Amino acid sequence: MLQFVVALLVLKSSLVRKVFDAISSFFVKILAAVGGIRGSRERGLSELELVTNRGLYANDDARVVLIALYAREKRHGDMLKILETLSAKYPHNYVFKVERAATLVKLGRAQESYRIFDQVLKDGSMAKVVDFVHYQYALTLMGQKQYKEAVDHFRSVITQPGANKELVTLSYLKAGQLLDILQQRNDAVSQYQAVLQRENVFDSHDQAKKYLKIAYRAE
After folding, report:
1. How far apart are CA 127 and CA 212, in angstroms?
2. CB atoms < 10 A from the CB of 144, how many?
C-alpha cells in the first residue's frame, strides 16, 4: 500500500489527486469497518492518528494517507510534521522531501522550501529523479511568482537526458505560459509549437493551440 500511494504522490494531475482522495476515503472506511468509526470524518482522522502514534497496523501507510487527508483539510502544519517524520525515516525517498518543500511554501516558509529543493538537486543519489524535482521546483517558484527562475527549472527538465516524456511536454507548456507573462512572446510561441510536436499529455495540445492564438495571462 505504501509504495502505491507514494507513487501517486509523484503525479500532480487533478485526476490522480481525485484517485488519491478516493484511496484515503477508502482507507478510513476500512478502519471504520474494523474499529467502529461509523463514517465520522473527525473520528476517522483520530483513528488514523492513533495508528501512527501507537505504531498499530501499518503506521507508515496511515501516515501517507494522513498527508492526503490533511491536505484536503488544509492542515499544512500537521502535514509538515508527518513529512518531517517520513523524510527522516526514509532519507533516500525524494517524494517526501519534495512534498515537504511544497508544504513549507504553503506555510509561508519559501526560503526553507528552496533550500530543500537545492539540496535534493545536489544529492547524487537523486540523479534518476532530477527531472521530477526540477518540475516540482518550477511549479513551486511559479506559485510564488518567481517566473524567470521557474522557466529555468522547466528548461532543465526539457534538456535533462532521459527525462520523463510527459514531464517534458508539460514543461514546454508551462514555460510557454511563463514566457508570455514575461512578455517574451516569440519564445512562448516556440514552446507551444514544441508541445504540438509531442504526444498529447492530458489537454496539453488544446492549451498549446489556445495560447498560440492568444497569449497566456496570469490568473
Report:
1. 34
2. 14
Residue 20 included in any domain: yes
Domain annotation covers residue 138: no
Q: What range does the domain containing 65 cover?
A: 1-73
Whole-model pTM? 0.77
Report the chain's C-alpha Rg in angstroms: 19
Alpha carbons 27 and 151: distance in angstroms, whole number = 38
Of 102, 75, 74, 72, which Cα lies nearest the Cα of 87?
A: 102
- Domain boundary (18, 45, 73) is at 73
Q: Between the CA atoms of 24, 112, 97 and 49, what dihedral angle is there, to the nearest 10 degrees?
A: -40
Question: Cell numbers at residue 203, please?
Answer: 489537454
C-alpha distances out from residue 100 to 12, 19, 44, 86, 199, Å: 15, 21, 24, 10, 31
pLDDT at 68: 83
Q: Domain count for the chain, please give it.
A: 2
Residue 112 forms part of a structural domain: no
- CB-based contact 102:118 (threshold 8 Å): no
What pLDDT is attached to residue 75? 93
Would you give the distance in Å from CA 185 to the centre of its chain? 28
Q: Which of 73, 93, 118 is the last residue of a domain?
A: 73
Is 66 within a domain?
Answer: yes
Burial of 33 (0-12, 13-18, 19+ CB in 10 A): exposed
Give mean pLDDT in consecutive 10-residue pieces for the chain, a chain of 219 residues: 41 42 48 46 58 59 82 92 92 92 96 97 93 96 97 98 96 98 98 98 97 94
pLDDT of res. 172: 98
